[in-house]
Amino acid sequence: MSRIALDDIRRAAEARYGDFTIDLPDGTPVTLRSPLRLSDDERDLLRDVEQLAAAGDTGAITEALKIAAKSEAEGDRLLSAIGGDLTVAVTVFEQWAASVSLGEAGPSAS
């Protein structure tokens, strides 16, 4: 019989599905949460925002970053540090999305 400690599972989950932390110019960190750590409502809103972003709505990128931020204050600090530069916002979003990518679900074995 296999045996593993829950703390080991937590460490593995963090390594695989962990948050994305950005150090701002002043040295303070801002954490963008993994989608798995968002509430159901936040995940639904994030999906809607991602669809808008894919359709070219540039404001949707900053909204997605605000949703993903660990707190409203962290989201505000991140957007303030970005300073309205859409190229930086898009790059942050792309790097966060790649970092927390869950991948596609495989076909079921049924």
Short description:
By secondary structure, this protein is mostly helical. The protein has five helices and two strands; from the N terminus they run αββαααα. The protein has a domain of 66 residues.
Main features:
two-stranded antiparallel sheet, 110 residues, mainly alpha, globular
List the helices and strands and how they pair.
Layout: H1 6-17, E1 20-23, E2 29-32, H2 40-54, H3 59-68, H4 72-82, H5 86-99
Antiparallel strand pairs: 1-2
User: What's the total number of strands?
Assistant: 2
Walk across the major sheet and give the strand order.
1-2
General shape: globular
Strand composition percent? 5-15%
Mean pLDDT: 86
CA-CA gap between termini: 26 Å
Helix content: 55-70%
Q: Label the structural class.
A: mainly alpha
What kind of sheet is the major sheet? 2 strands, antiparallel
* Rg, Cα atoms, Å: 16 Å
> Number of helical segments?
5
Order of helices and strands: HEEHHHH
Q: Which runs of at least 5 residues are low in confidence (pLDDT < 50)?
A: 103-110
